[in-house]
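Minutes, structural biology subgroup

Action item carried over from last meeting: produce the structure token record for F-box family protein (Rhynchospora pubera). EB confirmed the sequence was re-checked against the source entry. Recorded below for completeness.
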Amino acid sequence: MAMADPDEIDLFGMLPDDLVVTILSFLPTPVAARTSVLCRRFRHLWEASPSLTLTTESGSDFAVNFYNMADRLIFERDPSHPHPLLSLHIQLPNYSKLTDYYIHHLLMKARSFHPRHLTIEGSHSLVCLLVFIFSIDSLESLSLPTGIGPYRCLFPPHLPISCHRLRTLSLGFFRVDSASATRLVSELCSLEDLYLEIYARDKTLTLSSQSIRKLKLIIGASDSDSKFHTLALSLPSLEALHFETRGASFGQCHMIHGQIPLLKTAVVSLDEAYAEDVTAVAALLNFISHAGELSLRLKEERFLVPGPILFEPGKYVPNFPNLKRLDVSLCFHDHNLDSVIMMLHNCPALESLKLVHKIPKFTDWAQGRKRKDWRSELPRNADGNRRYASFTNLHSWKNKKEFMKFLDKKCTFVRRTQNGDLYCQLR
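Output recorded by EB:
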């Protein structure tokens, strides 16, 4: 067995405690805790980490483990320690036996360390704690549970808010109503990044903010007797938009308006697209037509006769003057391919194009439909299939030439009026 070199210097052991604690803060807390067995010096260093994760494991004693970890890291923490509590991540298990009083007491103690980042995961009911959470004025980012179901909680409509330093907010309560979302966004004057999941049960959703730069808006399934008519976004600083529907038809939205002049990137993902949604989808594309990058993901339901879901025949098609990159994923049957090519004629700055054929799901209503009506009409690619088409570096004449061939094969439906406006006339 080789002996250790007596002249070898322990560089890591020479590091000051403050630097070691900073290094440990990049590790998950359960991993950092294992360093306590290395030597006496490391026995308590991990407890001073500015980034903490409180988690539990499944089993009969998970609550005891959580209590012990919280006591060491939060309740016994020295407030005069030079390392402030910058980040606190709490992972609550499903069907947690932890009481609301204990979680409230834990957050109250954590607030004394002026945390900047707070993340809470799990299915624990947090309604009674929201007033306290939104009163932590030191927070710069806040993430609350997602996907906890409509039976869990309804976001309080008159929630007092004092965390005006908040820049990033992820709010996944499934029953956040439109009125609460409107007030919440308007009162957070420093908010820049927003993830919001809306329970669409109101007629109008209005989001107005001067500071938001990035928005991910998810509209969940609404009640059968509710309608979602108007979407108004007044976000003059917005640069990136992700709009998504889950289990809800977007066709109920009759009006989309607002101001997003600085929009650079847009992602549109519709979970269930129907032929009657075409008016709302076209209005949304017109609203974001000045974006430089656009990704469309439309899952079309297959129990109806195929029809256009991007633009209506004979209707005005918006120009996309700044669009350089376009990714489209949908069922490229005859009508949809015509609509996409019609759109491409109004993209003079396009540099990259990717088309992916997405086969809709068959349902009981689709029995007897002809599968050939839903087959891909994309041109056969180099792999010998019609599932996708890709064009890159369109500024190159060689690639541009191949791209123009693709357009010429399907351009018989295009017609122009005397003033030059482009319209679609399906074959």
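Discussion: Residues 264-427 form one domain.
Next step: EB to file the record with the rest of the batch.
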